[in-house]
User: Fold these one by one.
Assistant:
Number 1:
Amino acid sequence: MNSTLLETKNLTYVYSKGTSSQVHAIRDICLKIEKSELVGVIGHTGSGKSTLIQHLNGLLKGTSGTVLLDGKDIWEKKSDIRKVRFRVGVCFQYPEYQLFEDTVYKDIAFGPTNMGLDRDEIDRRIREVIYYVGLDESYLEKSPFDLSGGEKRRVAIAGVMAMQPEILILDEPCAGLDPKGRETILSMIKDYREKTGSTVLFVSHSMEDISKIATKVLVMNESRLAYYDTVDEVFRHADELRNMGLNIPRLTKLFLMLREKGYDVNTNVYTLEKAKQELLALLSKGGTDK
Amino acid sequence: MISDITIGQYYKGNSFIHKLDARAKILLTVLFIAMIFMCKNFLSLGLTFVFVVLSVLLSAVPVKMYLKSLKPIIPIVIFTAVLNMLYTGGETVLYSFWKITLTAEGLTTAAFFAARIVLIIISSSILTYTTVPTMLTDAIEKLLSPLKVFKIPVHSLAMMMTLALRFIPTLIEEIGKITNAQKARGADFESGKLLQRIKAIIPIIIPLVVSSFRRAAELADAMNCRCYTGGNTRTRMKQMKFCFKDFVSLLVFCIGIAGVVLLNIKFGAVI
């Protein structure tokens, strides 16, 4: 526990370098991701989240700075970059549009086959991950194009999980889903991490979602790393977050307002259950000022 | 590499040529190409060259842009020139070595062919750089409208062309996204034998085709929602007008062609 798995040092990436339209996508990112963390990544559109992710599995190479996986530079040997992608599994936004095989089984097998695993191992992994994403073996022989949107997305995520990456990165896995779909994906991520003990990074635009399951929050703002800390610590900067155009969860906001009015309450409240406890505690004290 | 494609690229401007009617510009391009092919000696080729240079200057598009559009066809120009140089028979032998003979006639032919290809690319680039794609397809529709007599759905064809042009950048972006997603699953596009490389493209092609169909269906729905019916009843927001300057330009080019013919007759053909 608590050993660094993935580290970036002064990572900077510049789009169209040397031309008039030169843009810094990310600037000077220094980041240490520990083993078994569940990191929620949040930031405004265009803050550099997706660019950062593409550096972590070597789809992009930083203009300057390094990415270290287990203490080794991922670009040390250029021919080994595919091995890095098996260890750092990335599932992009709207992954349902990347399905291409005629059965779910074959599509999930794409990653493991590229790894050169033998057939039995691939079969075992497929039957394992299909349950991780909340589907069952009856789906394996179906065509991915006959599934519903939410099911397609879960199949696509299973395709990345099947590579058994040490760190799983999901770019907005909940985008465009209804509340129930979001809930399913969130609890799926949480279960996956608990069962496999792997490290997970997920991008979301909802502080509510992040505060529900994440152990740490990474906040990106204007191509820089703004915060990387525990949920409680980050939400302490409510005002700064608001200036970045981000919102803290509504429940937390309520308790911050109560605190402002002079009531003695904790403000690290993200779930209804916790809110209930806090309110009951407050009432038992008579609900008085200070 | 894929972003080097210059087809349908518009260079924003406000020059004389930008302001010409799109129909006139298409006709002018046709006249241009006719002119290029009618050249039979270096004087008439020179005259055509002057026309091209003047048009490029009038378009106010940087010369760099034209060079960019020429870049992808350099291999074709060289290939054609070399073939013509070696396989054109002639009497005036300049140089002979083993089985290779260079003749003055061969050199002339090679120069002519190279010049023709380059001039054609430049003249058609003038058209695409100075005309918005939608205007271009509108103009094609107008020019082809006599074909309606033969029950050819000219309007639908023009609309299809507009949409096809519109979706080129979208598809390029899509290819990028899908490629990244498959690379993240360990797909290998860079190594392997030819057959393996062709097979490696399947995971990109299939999602691309699927999403193109999806986009097409969505677009059709969106058009239906706005009561698109197509056909003759539609009016246009921008009416095309054939003005004085369009007639003048066409006239100038007709005189140019006459000049080429005269020069051909007066000084004889070398090709």
Note: The mean pLDDT of chain B is 85.
Number 2:
Amino acid sequence: MPSLRINGTDHAFPGDTLPATVAELLNALEIDHATVVAEVDGQIVERTRFGETPIREGQSIELVRFVGGG
Amino acid sequence: MNDKLTIAGRDFTSRLFIGTGKYASNEMMARSIEASGTEMVTVALRRVDIGNPNDDMLAAIDRDRYLLLPNTSGARDAEEAVRLARLARAATGIAWVKLEVTPDPYYLLPDGAETLRAAERLVAEGFVVLPYIQADPVLAKRLEDVGTATVMPLASPIGSNQGLKTRASLEIIIEQATVPVVVDAGLGVPSHAADAMEMGADAVLVNTSIATAADPVAMARAFAMAVEAGRMAWLAGRAAERRIASASSPLTGFLRNG
């Protein structure tokens, strides 16, 4: 099964199909695009480019969002 | 009273900034922010919980009313802080950041050397940088020199509610600063905030003492009043402190026998 490292944890995707783009990954994880920031292998992906940013096997993805803080 | 605080060209009527951590609920947070009258609230960036991905606190914050000030909390050095600042900019679309670098998890005291390094890089990248620092007058000037929008010296450790433990150094920072001084961290009760404002601080940032009060909404309102009172007292110009008494009533015309 193909896998991605997401927020420091390996995630396997069933059926041999990795999401093709950041947008597809967020959809697969049921994450609202509007509230999240993505980094792929250390590079920030602007929200407007989620749909056109490809994802490949073995990449490291960080998905972050705002939480309460001082 | 036309007494605006201007940071990086943006005017603020309220001199109370609010942190959004530690509230029992997003609803309580929203009501407390409202009661505080603030115009700027801090937020933190953290990894999405993949198992519970849609807990979105931003939905509770009206972005038209409140400027979001993302912090770099969790950063242990300049590199991590710069990375967090860039992520925050991608999220908000604006380049304001509360810069904090706190390698020590016990007292959460900021690392001045790393903060200065990060500030230089972020200013060069066009960020509006509000650095959280020790109450160190020399560091405050160094940060000003590299172009930070404010300095934010701590009153006492984050969340400690101890008040103005750094008073003497805060007074020097306020005396010397040419950018707004925001007293951040450790203000436990409204009188601490009033005290800071009476000293001439330009604003204060409060989180724990409101969020963890028995009634956060009432405490937010109390802090708002204290900040306003302290500011007004500073502008009014305090009367001189004296070692001995100075009678308020005339010292003539006493009713005395003989």
Note: The interface with chain B takes residues 6-9, 11, 29-32, 35-37, 39, 44-47, 62-70 of chain A (CB under 8 Å).
Number 3:
Amino acid sequence: MTLVLQQLIIGLTNGMVFALIALGYTMVYGILELINFAHGDLFMLASFVALTLVGMLSIADLHGGALFGALLLVVAACALFSGGLNWTVDRVVYRRLRSAPKLAPLVSAIGVSFIFQNLGLFWGGLSMDVMGGGVAAAAPKAFPDLLPSDNLLGEGSALRITMKDVVVVLSSLAVMAGLFLLVRFTKLGKAMRATAQNPTAARLMGIDVDAVIGWTFAIGGALAGFAAVIYGLYINTIHYQMGYQNGLYAFTAAVLGGIGNIPGAVLGGLVIGVVRAFSDQAIGAEWQPAVLFSMLIVILVFRPQGLLGSTMREKV
Amino acid sequence: MRASHWLTISLAAVLVLGGCKKSAQAGSGGDPKTIVIVSSLPRTGSANAQTTTIVNGIRMAIEEAGGKVGDFTIKFEDWDDASAKKGDWDPEVEAANAEKAANNPDVMAYIGTYNSGAAKIAMPVLNKANLPMISPANTYTGLTKPGKGEPNEPQVYRPTGKITYFRVVPADDIQGPSAVKWMKQMGAKSVYILDDRNLYGKGLADTVEATAAADGLKVLGHEGIDPKAQEYKSLMAKIAALSPDFIYYGGTTQTNAGQLLKDMVAAGLKSKFMAPDGCYEDAFISAAGAEIANGRAHLTFGGVPPEKLTGKGAEFVKKYEERYKSKPEAYAVYGYVCAKVVLEAIAKAGKKDREAIRQAIAATEQKDGALGTWKFDANGDTSITLMSGNGVKDGKFDFITLLGN
Amino acid sequence: MDWRSLARRFLGFESVALAFLLLYPLAPFLDWMLESQQLPVRLDRQLVTIFIFAILALGLNLQVGTAGLLQLGIAAFFAIGAYTAGVLTVEKYPFQLGFWGALLFGPLVAGLAGAALGAPTLRLRGDYLALVTLGFGEVVRVVLINLESITDGPRGLNPIPAPWLPEWLVSTEIDPTGRRQVLVMYYLTLWILVALVVAFRTLERTRLGRSFVALREDELVSACMGLNPTRTKLIAFAVGAAIAGLAGVLYATNLTTTAEPNTYDFNYSIMVLCCLIIGGLGSLRGALLGSLVLIGFDNVISPLLTRLIQGEPKPGEVQSVFTTFSNWRWIIFGLALVLMMRFRPNGLWPASRSHPEPRA
């Protein structure tokens, strides 16, 4: 029983991280119908920014309030970086392809993903202590263990809940709530929803569609930046190729939840996290991806619009 | 298109295909005084770090010789067997590399591959061309040793029956049992085995499992992991309930050994962690974090580690540090030794002839070289069966014991 | 049939025949170039790879370009073909049907797998289907790794024998250079590729071919006209999978091993899709051109460029991660993809009819 509870905690905490990345996917998809393959690699680059800042500001030596303040600073910087980068990529690459066939921006996104990966490789080669002194650029990098990982229930307890888990879950929930409020109640959010529903009509209503799309990329990117810091603090390893798997799972979460649907992406992320944990527990780690994706296929056969997606009538 | 056109084309096809019947011969090379040595290693993607040290080692050996052996000028070419689209070694590229080398009469030695899977593709091609191949990193047992892999191994890699493949690293059937022996020496009663489902890691983990069962070390479980996964917390939570004395991981730094160790500690496990030579590099310690690796990580490695070497070995370390401004990683010395073996064989053969050089390589006897004293056995394996056990202390590898077989 | 369509039909075959006639004598020529040391790369070998990739792209084109199904897991069917070939030919198993048996059964098994996957899932909308195919690709890869008793896990099944051909055509004595094998594979893959292109061309004028086009152009209208879209899609999906399986058989035969299951990962599927889109989705020549450009760039031009720019490091020189030119490979590859889409968003040589694309 303890073990079941333990796996549930692990699954949900992991799921939160997937959900944060999935949000950026689903927002862009909701508006552009573009599967942004570069999103996972954007997340990866943001994590390198985070690690670089942690090294430069010697954050590992700080405690208490100073540590908290420094982490906020890192979060802000990473969000700004990846939001800005995502916005720029849209401006330079995708915007010119708005009227192109739907799959053209997809290939561009794959191209951008390769470029980002290569930049991540170079970044890992910087001669800094946190990057391993630049000896092996391609090697995984340790992200310092900044949050306490003592068991909150006491070291004797079989169940482990740490400060890390609590911070990941609470801060992710706060950011998700913020995003939800933004999309639901602000003018920008309204413009986003309008553009997602029908770009042409939105333009006729006086909405600057390009600006709205730009903002969507910026916000989705900023979420990836936030996710990158959380990932670093929780998982403690970053690697220039980690965008692949994280992007894959985030895309999966976004589609599973009902693509374009924000609560759906969160739910999708959580489902993936929990399924992974229980598959490890019950079946064996080597079958994890197979279990995960078989379950997805089955879910989609019975719920073809995703978990929370609404059935859309085909437009004629 | 009329039917008669197709008839014409079909006829042409038969004619040209008939051309294949004439047995092709490797033409005689360009400059008779130039000998080319190539290496085929994954230079794009995750293995780049290790292959860079291997190539550094090779270059150093050739530079030491002044780029010449007797009258021959030695040219070295550093080939990539990875492709951008795969981001790792690519079977198509490895096959193309092997054939390219086989067909270039100037090429007298093929240093590679890094991955045992790639070796399986290159070996038969090079064997038919009678081109000696020396690997600095393949450890899959079936590549050389009869009766230890599939029933058709290793004959399937030697269509001509000659031994053209050599390796300077001890194979998994040496390293696996050494690991078990060491775990038992440290008083372990139980082990949980994990592997990365790659040829290297899986092969080694299987050997460890078989030996452990025979030697009375209790195997609590053997699982594969997804080496690209973000974390292994749920796996470690499951293992924590069994509290094994050791967790053995058949895998490398690149296949996430650091993360496994980290999650093992995070799950509150008090077990120790053992991994093979694929993790014996500074990158492993920096990936896991020094505090986590200290005292927990145990690594086996073929031969004596570079810093414990005396004579030539110590010299190699010193020269490498001067030359490349960094410490030599484990694989650097293998690359260096591969090149040394080839250069010495060329000197001994004294002529630009694959068969002569192949025989000279097979007869290699290194006395107090960078890896100590050894020779190749009848299968093309190194005679080194000595493994060393290393721990981590203060964020650095720390030699603990020798594990003879 | 008016003269215009007749002319188009004839022209279509003419271009195929022309390409064929150009490619036909290329292999012996390249072989001669190689023998006389004129070439730094093994071009005929790379052409075999490109042909196999093009066959794979043709299969995917049927699914994505013709049936409008966004498919992100073509590597799964490719792998099924390769492993069927492995199981049917290696010594370990009693079948030992040889290459020609594998060529028959590989596509069959892959096609059946395609039908089995397609039947329950093809009614899904665009990107949900994309996820299902992606998921299927991952499931197949993981199953191939873990079902070690059948697939030999990461070791792969080998050796896969070379195609049996009559002794008077191809001699059986050991060939030290491996060039004969490459030539055989060259002609084999070229013949199969051309046969497929001709078959597709012919298909376009049959009832099934027209229903494919109708489906691609407008699913709703074609359903109103009495076509059964689900059935038509299923046929396209299964046949596309079978062709991918055929490519898999050729791939494994060419390598003489199935290689490790990780070869057939998501990346591979994505690369085939890239080939298709870069060439021009929905057109046969697009699939061929895309494979030529992308694989040619990755396998041939990029290593050449690397050597050209990087040159020989001088003795004593310390290379850093930045100065090693091969480390720039992804940036160059990525930029190439971005720029090609920037300037040719419909592909290098798009279909003339209209812009086919999967619709949501």
Note: The longest strand of chain B covers residues 72-80.
Number 4:
Amino acid sequence: MTKQADVIIIGGGATGAGVARDCALRGIKALLLERGDIATGATGRNHGLLHSGARYAVTDRESAEECIKENMILRRIASHCVEETDGLFLSLPEDGLEFQAKFIEACRAAGIRADAIDPKEALRLEPSANPAMIGAVRVPDGAVDPFRLTMANLIDAKAHGAEVLTYHKVTELIREQDRIVGVKAVDCRSGEKKEFRAEIVVNAGGIWGHDLAAMAGVTVKMLPAKGSLLIFGHRVNNIVLNRCRKPADADILVPGDTISLIGTTSSKVPFDEVDNMYVTADEVDLLLREGTKLAPSLAHTRILRAYAGVRPLVASDDDPSGRSVSRGIVVLDHATRDGLEGFITITGGKLMTYRLMAEWTVDLICKKLNINKKCTTAECKLPGSREKEEKISKRLHSVPVAQRESAINRHGEMAERLDVGDAAARSLVCECEEVSVGEVKYALNELDVHNLVDLRRRTRVGMGTCQGELCACRAAGIMAEAGKYCSHQAKQDLVSFLNERWKGMAPVAWGDTLRESEFTMWLYDGVCGLKNEKTE
Amino acid sequence: MMTEQSNFNFEQCIKCTVCTVYCPVASVNPLFPGPKQAGPDGERLRLKHKGFYDESLKWCLNCKRCEVACPSNVRIGDIIQAARIKHSTKKPGLREKMLANTDFMGSMATPFAPIVNFSVGLKPVKVVLDKVIGIDHRRTFPKYSFGTFESWMKRRRKKQAKYARQVSYFHGCYVNYNNPQLGKDFVKVMNALGVGVQMLEKEKCCGVPLISNGLIDKARRQGEVNTASIRKSVVENKWPVVGTSSTCTFTLRDEYPHLLDIDNADVRDHIELATRYIYRLLAEGNVQLRFKKKAPVRRVAYHTACHMEKLGWAYYSIELLRMIPGVELTVLDSQCCGIAGTYGFKKENYPTAQAIGEGIFRKIEASGCDVVSTDCETCKWQIEMSTSKPVVHPISLLAEALE
């Protein structure tokens, strides 16, 4: 079968989703193809930090300016994905105060509010901060939920006519003379081979864009840099904590939803490892050692899991750490660069600038397609962020508090579409994160969910401290009931979900985390008799 | 509140949910989300934002049976109570103040005890209390005594001082205003063991009704007064502090540091329950109790109060009762009777309280006992109101059997 669109976007990260939305809002028919689920690459594997840009102010002025502009835009258009926590840059005795003056000056030059505050005041604002600090600067950092952000972009894109196909892997770019005219793809779930044609194909594949470019016969040299992070069991801090020094390893602690995250490390990895990242013991040690300098209580806080992502940096020099590479946005028009029409690569940048990356890309698309439409994504609010939380909360007053607030945090005004009318729909699937049966069903019906991991990204099922112990089997049951899969597949999905959870726990498997995972295994293996049937 | 490390005590929860299985409220009242969700799960959400606080936590009766059941040492009950203290926006009303201020109510009522007791038993008064204030009309009030225990004790100070060994007695409001006889029985038993009984320099209500009715600052002030007096008794005079009420004793020992931020680590181990103190004194082998020669057969059913279960000391009361000649003892399954202090008095809690207690009431009736014994005064009110049996404190049964 062959399908037609104006633009094909390859990659369902924040950038791809942003491009799809921007296209749709400008009346361009977009088709997004994603080989797995949305936000599975770098988009979903970072701090979830709503950068103020302060981190880059001294070293990369351009990035800093982009960050603060986008920061302010996201607060407005994506309020349900953003937590306005503010951030503190702490100077510890070992850092000295020298950097601070330079830092404040650079921030202000980039348009970032930066106020030096008394360490005592900083400690009052954020009691978890290291009391040994000798200086603190307050900046407008925040937290952003990348899954929610990506989904909201896709929901809006679809509402404006875009089509989104997850689990569709591009196998070939169709080239006719000096022009890319479409792609061949395989539906990973059914095995069906499909062909799609469009005027323009956009490579928004992140680190995998390297291979996509190669498929088109052009070279985009990427530098995969692995970054590992630790997730703590609960919110340790309510304000983002940074170190006031040159950017280094493990110097950002971000409160995100119910947890806190410390990261990251940075190391070069070969391309054949980017699909399967493991966090090493050394990385865990480093993250903990540096993390406790920001917030000493991390030393005795339960660690939920560890994970790693790959930064899709465009190699501009051969710096081995990958840090001095500019995080600047790279839009490559392969027509002018390589003489190949109909193919655009959008890369570099960062989660913070996904919208701007999309804007530049779609500006280029418009130019190519001779469309004269202005970008409106900086003004149009994303679905979920169109109403004040308090208002929605009032309308949903009959739903139990924690369940109501959680659903509104996750879905904004879309929470009103959840069917939680009766006791059965209000019963909880995930007790740690207060996900109701109604919310799971909403996700299954409307948010492109095909398995438990997808469901986790939409609802936080399995993201709490129990890591699937109580919720995974309930959710699998609902999915089987809803006809998403048969009971055999449900079991397989359950096994793979639990294994995926274990992968994140393994590097930090001690104390209560180990105890709980042992209990989970005892429940599923010992009581329920769940076995991995494939391996038997 | 709590130490830095134990602040995150909820992290030890591995979601086994056995606390919810043992929660007396969760099994009868679907409006209560259960200890796991209200406690460790909820705490994690409340750390994210205080807006996650749910007023349904008021259904928790603070029995601490969740903590007894927990295999991970999570202080679930404390977490729930601390959350109520920190986040509840419901201001205590007239009813809460009436129920909580036991000292004030007691000192007002005891001089006019016969009139007060008569009037609160009248139907029109009950209807008014129910409709206007919200105290359930089906509830029977404990009778006030005519004259307090403290005034009785004051007259005996000199005589008590003659004993070589001394203890301070934390009598509690119930003994002082409602049942001085229990206090007198305690003095009788202690004297029989060669121990003199002193009063604390200052004794205020332990604070448990204040805590559960949201009057935290007052509870803390009273707790500080009590702890200072206890410290004086324990540290200066070397007299341990002994109580007859399991809940008062538990509060002085554990609720003070856990909920009121009162550091009592230096004296906590010297705050004792009467039956445990006596049992251990007898176990030393230097003294003996002499019982009446002719003892009639008495079938006693022992009820383990919730805070007794939490203290883990029911054993001492049970073994003391077994020592009494003629007593045929049945130990009832340890279950909450539902009243939980002032909880069961409130109109909205009445159905929950009675549904919780139903099982234990049936077992009491079926046991064929003559009398129920328990270390908690509010269990006594509940069981006497809800069954046909009288309830007597183990110390009173002991005193009665003495020669």
Note: The domain at 2-42+147-221+327-369 of chain A is CATH 3.50.50.60 (FAD/NAD(P)-binding domain).
